[in-house]
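Private note to self, pasted from the team thread so I don't lose it. Backbone tokens:
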């Protein structure tokens, strides 16, 4: 049986993101089964956390803005080895250097990653990791833009299998956590070499200040939008920390997680389709694809979310411990984020290079989130902060949907099955009401 008909940019990128996430989960399982101390595992977790916190916004903004520019910009005409990819690499490298210098100067002052093994500190490895891993995230998107979907599968399978072995095995054979972290940096070095080879093959190595300016003009609203949206979880955390004790903060932190499959699959679908808007003649086809693919995600993810909502109060004390039973109340609210996640006006706007409205919506989102959190925390406690997040996300999408309709003439019915979304959303909210408000299902 041939599987080629199932392999496309969307399925390949979704597979890649799921494999990446699954590998990290398996590594954490291996760590938990090893002789590593909680403090050592904490060093690894903070290493990953800090790298993400310092790079997620400019990394996503730069890559997402490259997708509609490839073959559709004022600087270069599309050809087999167009320089867009090389210049995007230069831009990512510059951002990485800026952050690396910042960490090098201030890392010791704030006592970040000060743990050492012989003469090597985590801070040294972190700087190398940051310089290599951030630009390497371009690889899967080069394959995406070149429409080489099979290579995304091959690359993801090789890299994440090696990562699982090189990062996970040292813990199993009772080596110090530093060897796992060095393994993580080694995988980044391999990915970086892979990227260089791919750039030599796929892009003309021609620096263009004109294109970089064009790229930055499109990227900066997305960078700031990602920064604003991503900072919401940290602001919520600080608010909980200020208002309540450490135990309550831990309960909130364990519950304040949306279903990972939702965000992973939704973002992969969105990013895979952004480049398709470069051909204006195919916009109707792309909208139909969003409609079809988003409906499939609804059929998969809404039933899963409803099931987790029903079972969460039973599962949380088992997966964690009885002290975190109340985390399920927060988690159940975060499950409602699926309603806004599976609406895709941002895909259209990014594809058509309308990035400033995305920034405006993100700014409104963060203002509403903070404002409602300050009010709701006094009414519903930590659950109120979760309510504020859900409402802010929905308003963000409403702004983008209205703009797409009024300014671009693209009604939501062209890219989202509104009836299907409404039915699933009704049952999810009803289930939440019965489980968390009425308490009709109580384990």
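Design output:
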């Amino acid at each position: 049986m041939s599987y080629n008909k199932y392999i496309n940019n969307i399925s390949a990128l979704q597979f890649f993101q799921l494999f990446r996430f699954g590998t990290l989960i398996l590594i954490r399982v291996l760590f938990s089964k090893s002789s590593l101390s909680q403090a050592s595992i904490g060093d690894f977790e903070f290493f990953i956390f800090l790298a993400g916190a310092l790079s997620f916004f400019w990394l996503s903004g730069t890559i997402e803005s490259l997708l509609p520019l490839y073959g559709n910009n004022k600087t270069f005409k599309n050809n087999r080895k167009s320089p867009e990819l090389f210049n995007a690499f230069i831009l990512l490298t510059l951002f990485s250097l800026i952050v690396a210098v910042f960490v090098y100067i201030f890392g010791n002052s704030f006592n970040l990653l000060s743990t050492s093994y012989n003469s090597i500190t985590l801070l040294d490895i972190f700087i190398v990791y940051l310089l290599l891993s951030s630009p390497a995230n371009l690889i899967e998107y080069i394959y995406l833009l070149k429409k080489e979907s099979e290579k995304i599968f091959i690359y993801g399978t090789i890299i994440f299998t090696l990562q699982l072995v090189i990062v996970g095995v040292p813990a199993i054979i009772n080596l110090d956590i530093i060897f796992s972290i060095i393994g993580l940096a080694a995988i980044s070095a391999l990915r970086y070499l892979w990227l260089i080879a791919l750039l030599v093959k796929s892009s003309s190595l021609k620096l263009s200040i004109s294109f970089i300016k064009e790229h930055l003009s499109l990227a900066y609203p997305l960078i700031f939008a990602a920064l604003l949206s991503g900072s919401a979880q940290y602001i919520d955390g600080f608010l909980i920390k200020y208002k309540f004790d450490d135990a309550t903060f831990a309960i909130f932190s364990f519950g304040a997680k949306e279903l990972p499959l939702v965000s992973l699959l939704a973002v992969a679908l969105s990013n895979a389709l952004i480049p398709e808007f470069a051909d204006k003649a195919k916009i109707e086809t792309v909208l139909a694809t969003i409609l079809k693919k988003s409906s499939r995600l609804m059929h998969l993810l809404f039933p899963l979310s409803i099931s987790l909502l029903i079972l969460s109060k039973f599962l949380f004390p088992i997966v964690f411990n009885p002290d975190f039973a109340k985390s399920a109340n927060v988690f159940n609210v975060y499950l409602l984020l699926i309603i806004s996640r599976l609406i895709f006006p941002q895909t259209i706007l990014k594809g058509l290079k309308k990035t400033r409205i995305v920034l405006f919506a993100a700014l409104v989102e963060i203002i509403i989130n903070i404002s409602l959190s300050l009010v709701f925390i006094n009414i519903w406690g930590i659950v109120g902060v979760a309510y504020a997040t859900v409402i802010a996300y929905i308003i963000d999408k409403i702004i983008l949907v209205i703009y797409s309709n009024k300014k671009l003439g693209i009604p939501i019915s062209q890219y989202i099955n509104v009836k299907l979304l409404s039915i699933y959303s009704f049952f999810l909210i009803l289930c939440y009401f019965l489980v968390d408000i009425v308490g009709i299902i109580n384990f």
